[in-house]
Structures are given as structure tokens and as C-alpha cells.
Amino acid sequence: MKTRKRLITQTPECLTEASSQLLNVIISTLFAMVFLTAYVPFSETAWFQVGRSNYFFITVAFVGSGTIFLGLSRILMNWVVRKTRHFPFWVYLLWLFLEIMIIAVCHTLISYFEIQATDHSFGYLYAKSVLITFIALGVPYTITILGILLKDAQRRMKLTRSDLVASDDEAMPEHTEIINLMDNNGTLKLSVKLDNLYYIKAEDNYINVFYQRSGTIASYMLRCKMKTIEDNCAESSSLMRCHRSYIVNIKKVSVLHNEADGFVLDFEREGLESIPVSKTYAQKVLEAFNKK
Q1: Do residues 88 and 27 share a domain?
Q2: What 3-state DSSP class applies to 55?
Q3: How many domains does the chain have?
Q4: 197 bridge partner residues
Q5: Residues 146, 229 within the same domain
Q6: Residue finishing a domain among 159, 187, 206
Q7: Average pLDDT over residues 14-19
Q8: Alpha-carbon distance values, 248 to 73, 245, 266 (Å)
């Protein structure tokens, strides 16, 4: 139930990734150009022209400035997401709605002042521009978002499968909990028993997985985001985020002690680094440690 609530309130990370934002802007721009061109013969106030006409340069300026505006808008969105670390889905939808409304205003101003469609009031042109813009941008927005969410859901299903061969060189008893880790392309890179996994550490755009293999501590690095791992491990009561750079298997923690900078976790096995606990996750980690 907690996972369901998080998915509803928090914008899925796949939608705010730079590649997803770029894809959304490109597809939306191309769709809008095709739609507005096809719409011209059916409206007496339409001015959008990509061929040789009196309005060609106005059209080019409108498309170019609109694309730049969408690009800057998504850059700002990504900055807000990174800054706040909490970007509700309703805010994401409201952001897209405001993009559409702003472009509709620009379309109206061009129609009213530059094209001088004097037979119609500003209110009429604005209402018409809103409808046109909602179709021209709303449709590709919706298609792109659904496509990205579907692809992400398929990747998550692969990530949570437990019928794949593990790579920690141990036999898999029935009902063994397996953690399958994939890179950003959805390719399976590492499959390990939960009981053999100690912690996962973020290092720039990569994660480093520390686990037991054939009786010794091994590490495996792959290109993947910590937020993706955290979301896919949400159902596990053992794996939890304790720091922006660490996910830890709480069952492997033997000591939790308080230092000047906060709580620190140590494992039952020697040779592993001490794991810091940030204030954001301290209460949750404390509760889990006391229950184990």
C-alpha cells in the first residue's frame, strides 16, 4: 500500500530523466508542426505555414521559440527535481498544463496583432488557440508519457524476477529472495541472494554492489541510479536507504553507534567500510535495526 501511495504522489523518476525530457520535447514539436499544418485548410484564422508564404518567417520564429521555451522549461524542471528531491505527480501535470497555456497565449498574440484577424475578438482567438494547443501538445505529451511509463514498468518487472540464475556461485533453495540488478538499458548485470548482499553505494552515475561470493567479499559496478534501486527494493524489509549514497541490508548490520556527525552502521564482517546514516533516514533505520 505504501508503494502504491508513493507512485501516485511522487513523479516517476523515468519521466524527469534528461533523455525522457528530450524525447518528449522532440516528439511534441514534430507532432505540433504536422497537426498545425494539417489544420490550416480547416480554419479561417490559421496562419501556420511551413512552405513559401507570407507567414513563413513568423511560423519559423514561433516553432523555434516554442521549442527553446520547452527545452528551458524542462531544464528548470530537472533543476527543481534535484533541488527539492520531492516532485509530486500533480505538480508535474500542472507544469505541462502551464507550458500549454503559455504557448497558447503566444499563438493568440500572433493571431491577433501580427496576422490581424480583426473579424474576431481576442477572447475568441484565445479560446481557439487553447483548444488547438491542447491538441497539438497534449496528445504527444500523453503518448510520450504513457510510452515512457510502459517501458519503465517492463524494466521493473524484469528487475524483480526471481527465476534467473544467480551470480554469487551458490545454489538457490526454493523461496530464496533474489535481488536482480539491471543497468539503465534494462540489461541484467547481477543477480545475488539477499542474504549475500551487504550494501549498495552510489558513485557518480554508477552504483557499486558489495556482496559475498564464494566466501569472500566481492564488488560489482554498473550504471544505474540509486533511486531506481530504492524503488525496486521497496517491498523488501531488509534493504533500505540510509543515506543519499547508500542502500544497506539491515540484517547484515551488527553495530549501530552514534558519532559526532550522526549514526554509523558497521557490519558483522570485517573489511567493509562503516556506513553513515543521514538525518533524513535515521528514524527509519533505527526502527528497522531494533526490530531485526
Answers
A1: yes
A2: coil
A3: 2
A4: 211
A5: no
A6: 159
A7: 85
A8: 36, 10, 10
Determine the Cα–Cα distance for residues 141 and 7; give it in Å rounded to an integer.
19
What pLDDT score does 46 carry?
66
Residues paired with residue 10 on neighbouring β-strands, in sequence order: 88
94-112 per-position pLDDT tens digit: 999 999 999 999 988 888 7
**From residue 186, how far is each of 24, 140, 155, 223 by CA, in Å?**
20, 24, 6, 10
Whole-number Å distance between alpha carbons of 156 and 26: 26
pLDDT tens digit sequence for 72-84:
999 999 888 877 7
Residue where one domain finishes, among candidates 105, 127, 159: 159
Relative to beta strand 275-276, strand 262-267 is: antiparallel
Residue 159, CB-side half-sphere exposure with 13 Å CA sphere: 21
Range of the domain at 105: 2-159
Mention every residue, 6+ apart, whose C-beta is less than 8 A from residue 137.
Answer: 28, 31, 32, 99, 100, 103
Q: Tell whether 133 and 274 lie within a shared domain.
A: no
Task: Give dist(CA 250, CA 241) in Å, integer.
Answer: 10
pTM above the 0.70 mark? Answer: no
At residue 216, what are phi and psi to the nearest 5 degrees? -120, 160
Is residue 152 within 8 Å of residue 174, measured between CB atoms? no
Which residues make Cβ contacts (< 8 Å) with residue 136, sequence separation at least 6? 31, 32, 35, 36
Closest CA to 91 of 5, 4, 15, 1: 15
Distance of CA 10 to CAs 92, 96, 205, Å? 9, 16, 22
- Spatial separation of the C-alpha atoms in residues 121 and 119, rounded to whole Å: 7
Query: How many whole angstroms separate alpha carbon 180 and alpha carbon 194?
Result: 10
Q: What is the pLDDT of residues 170-181, one digit of tens each?
A: 555 555 678 888
Same domain, 86 and 11: yes
